[in-house]
Amino acid sequence: MSKQELVVLDQTADEDGCCPRLLTAPLDESQAVELAGVFKALGDPVRLRLLSMIASREGGEICVCDLTPAFDLSQPTISHHLKLLRQAGLIDSERRGTWVYYWLVPEMTDKLAGILTRPAGTAAAAGPAGCTS
How far is CA 88 from CA 67, 123, 130, in A? Predict the structure, then answer.
């Protein structure tokens, strides 16, 4: 298992109050490195499922004791995946007695959505000339 560390995407806003959009300006190297770390955290099916379970939980938070049984993985492996999601800034947590509770960080998912969203009034990019797909 790799000893990877993920960096939280820079939280500074650009001039329109959001983040740079992939379709309006090229990312600089540091932005690309930071964004790749967040997408790396999302690039694992277990972590995507965990994020989905946390985000969709009624009440907005879920105990690790409710997450672990949904997977055929050991508790330390689930904890490792949760740690990577926390390091990426996608979730946060709090220990309450024996258990740890997790919740989504909506500012991060909003930021990702903003980066990937085509600006209003912008036509979809056309493919190469003659391409019909």
Answer: 19, 32, 40
The secondary element (H helix, E strand) that includes residue 93 is strand 91-96
Q: Residues near 29 by Cβ (< 8 Å), separated by ≥ 6?
A: none
As beta bridge partners, residue 99 has 96
Residue 28 CA neighbour count, 13 Å, CB half:
3
CA 8 – CA 120 distance, rounded (Å): 27
User: Is pLDDT of 23 > 80?
Assistant: no
Residue 26 has what pLDDT?
Answer: 84
Residue 123: exposure state from Cβ atoms within 10 A (0-12, 13-18, ≥19): exposed
